[in-house]
Write a structure and sequence with these properties.
Length: 132
């Protein structure tokens, strides 16, 4: 069996994955894609997860975090930056708007790579802005 290298996931490929992973917001993702608004697409996925959070659907959120990590692991630098700066950064908002038990579960569902990025962001925010 030959090892075929995985194709690097660029913005266009990431959009196709996200349309597949997020059927409830597929139309919104498609509209934002036509406008070449990848940041908007990332925000739409975050908003969808926040809706799931209000419904206490923590397992589904965990599943979507792992799917996003799959994209991140094979992404080009632009897609990685967007995931780090929008998707992972949004976890701070999740923490503020949910019960501590739910947050602990969400954190456990996060791949180690996302946990490290999140904790690094929190540390940087505390240093630069005095935020907790």
């Amino acid at each position: 069996m030959t090892n075929v290298p995985m194709q690097t996931i660029n913005q266009k490929i990431a959009v196709e994955y996200l349309k597949f992973f997020y059927p409830p917001i597929r139309k919104e993702i498609s509209q934002l894609s036509v406008q070449n608004n990848f940041a908007g697409i990332m925000q739409a996925t975050i908003n969808y997860l926040k809706t799931l959070l209000t419904e206490s659907k923590i397992n589904i959120i965990g599943h979507h975090i792992k799917l996003m990590e799959g994209i991140y692991s094979n992404a080009d630098s632009y897609v990685k930056d967007m995931i780090e700066n929008l998707f992972v950064r949004s976890f701070g908002s999740f923490k503020k708007h949910t019960k501590i038990q739910h947050w602990n579960l969400i954190f456990q569902y996060m791949p180690v790579q996302f946990q490290e990025i999140y904790l690094n962001q929190e540390k940087q925010d505390q240093l630069f802005f005095g935020k907790k």
